[in-house]
Amino acid sequence: MHISRPRSVLLAGAVAVTLSATALPAAFAAPSSTAVISEVYGGGGNSGATLTRDFVELANAGSAAYDLSGFSVQYLPGTPSAGSLWQVSALTGSVAPGGRYLVAEAAGTGGTVALPTPDATGTVAMSATSGTIALVSGTTPLTCKTAADCAADTRIVDLVGYGSAVVREGSGPATGTSATASVSRGTSLADTDDNAADLTAGATTPVNTAGETSGGSGPGDPGNPTEPGPVRIHDIQGTTRVSPLDGQSVTGVPGVVTAVRTSGSRGFWIQDAAPDADARTGEGVFVYTGSAAPAVAVGDAVLVSGKVDEYYPSATTQSITEITAPRVTVLSSGNALPAPVVLDAASVPGAYVPSAGGGSIDALPLDPATYALDRYESLEGTRVEIADTRVTGATTAYGEVWVTVKPNENPTGRGGTLYSSYTDQNTGRIKVMSLDTTRPFPVANVGDVLSGTTTGVLDYDSFGGYNLQATELGTLTDHHLRREVTRKQKGKELAVATYNVENLDALDEQAKFDTLAQGVAVNLSSPDIVSLEEIQDDNGAVSDGTVGSEATLKRFTDAIVAAGGPQYAWRYIAPEDGKDGGEPGGNIRNVFLFNPERVDFVDRPGGDATTAVTAVDTRKGVTLSASPGRINPTSDAWDDSRKPLVGEFRFHGKPVFVIGNHFASKGGDQPLHGRYQEPTRSSETKRVKQAAEVNTFVKSLLAADKSARVIALGDLNDFAFSPTVQKLASDGALKPLITTLPRNEQYSYVYEGNSQTLDHILTSPGICRFDYDVVHINAEFADQASDHDPQIVRVDVNAPVHGHH
């Protein structure tokens, strides 16, 4: 599932972590996960100082503007006496997401450089060496004089003690302040409620809400030069993924503006028209303007001054090299742009990324001739061009489409690119987005082609890695992909399907019910049994104790009848409220639909949310202790996850045991394109435990009757080659049917341009004659009712156990 794209939202996610309380009572951290004190300087105007005034800088790492009306910044001496009082500077206005807010305090007689235009002005003469600053909701002076007392004051949004301050957060104050040095959180805005750890001393870098970094302007201003400085873009990009100048200020970096982004993470790209000869060192870079709209145009020749920053969209992704808090001089306009670098099958290597043994690849020297991700990294921020690229991932709701620059790389039969192993990544995949907000983005399905050339700059984000921010889009050639319809089962065949219906509940629009119903009645040709995943409780994502799904299932089965299908009956076991994961309040569960005209459900009492179903060995063969039942539901393998649903059916007088599964998601795994290689699949441990539980249960059925007909199916959230599926199939208990298809048909899900499978049907040795099909109706299409394709198996229950497939 996607989340909102703006950089501010991603920062909010990071700050929600960094604001957790560690060394102090929670009151210091609890009031806010957005506004923090980002820099404190008390040496302004002192002897030897450059700046003429003291200042406090605030920052907002939230996803929305932070209103400071009625707030104040307050100062207390580092070692307060009985008569010491907090001094108040009132604030007005707001600070934008990702932005800064500058509070000017008292001026001294020293210094030569004015602050940028302050957003608020106080009269506090701060100590250069020791003091405490608090951001306070309200303007009434604080009264606390100790760290413990201040921790209990809920009006304090954030607090910084510096020098030898008694009132501080955590183990100690931030140290190193002087007439020329401030303490700052840096660009990460890290806040663990430990001032000593979170803030470090360094050169002053005051920034106001307009993004200005120093006072005045003109030829004499080092922040706004008219001649190029000593640093070029390739010096900033360097020969690894992290800039050798990270955290340093640069002046007068020359380049031509190649693209401008006016929404989300605002800013513009510049590229050096005089590249060096080193293929590792990039010639383009992103200039981040924060909440301010970029005041440049494509073709402008500019000089940019600011601070170099490695911005990590999340903790496990690679970084984007940027110039932040920029001052820009436009030298001329209408200049020709550097020729784009062509990305094609010949120019992108076949190996994906170097290994760091699971560690970070940040410091490894780039090898763009050997590794695809190194090639892309060496072109970060650079103009690139692709031509006649096949779509491998349909257009998303966010205006993105995945294409491949390698048409012969693991092609599927319908135009996608198959993901076939952890060690064989598809290197030609790239995501295309458009910087032109005036035109609608093309709606493309897998197999369509972006014909002609698409040109733009190469960027990186956490939602798939390297992407082309297009300034010119090719034209869409429609290859008329069609939704599949599987054949109708024969009279003697039992047809069993699995379908993840993506958080279906009774509050959804009728159109979703109708489309999903069409999939069951028409595309799946009305199976005898349908095992559903992600049926929510009737009021959806509302946490009020509701766990029933009757209204949801009635609407769904009625829609199937309206689409020409049979009147299905259903069985499920309602979960305990809040125990099965998924969308909070939704209580998703597995459900069996079955056509009572074709198949019988054997109801046996005793199944509930916490009782384990067992195999019962009788003289007439194996049966279930309860039907429907759940597999060992109190095992920690199922903590906060869906429990498998087991049902006993009879078809043509023969018992068939069906197990509906929905294993734990891949949430928390490190991304394929991330900074840690090889990526850790931390979620896999839980799925392997879940697979072991199901495997053990299947073997208990087979121990009672080795020819028992068992069908285990559902969304396993893992690949055919994964340890999860290997564990599920272990000891010959089950056979994964996806591997019986031709290789280029082994998929039912498309993610980041990779055709892969998370859904599976597995059968026991007692099922010897079957016909299996993945029915492609969703995953390859921009318009989809679910992000999963359903699967179906048609079983001849009367085939001899040693018959042929």
Describe the model.
The chain has 805 residues and is mainly beta. 11% of the residues lie in helices and 30% in strands. It has nine helices and 41 strands. Strands 29, 32, 33, 34, 35, 36 and 39 form a seven-stranded mixed β-sheet that branches. A hairpin with a 2-residue loop joins β37 and β38. The longest helix is centred in the last third of the chain and has 21 residues. It is globular, with a radius of gyration of 31 Å. The chain starts with 6 loop residues before the first helix and ends in a 9-residue tail after the last strand. The N terminus is likely disordered.
Give a quick summary of the entry:
By secondary structure, this protein is mainly beta.
Low-confidence stretches: 1-27, 215-223
Mean pLDDT: 91
Helix content: 10-25%
Structural class: mainly beta
How would a crystallographer describe the biggest sheet?
7 strands, mixed
Shape: globular
Overall number of strands: 41
Report the β-strand fraction as a percent range.
25-35%
Q: What is the terminal separation in angstroms?
A: 38 Å
Gyration radius (Cα, Å) is 31 Å
Number of helices: 9
- In quaternary terms, these chains amount to single chain
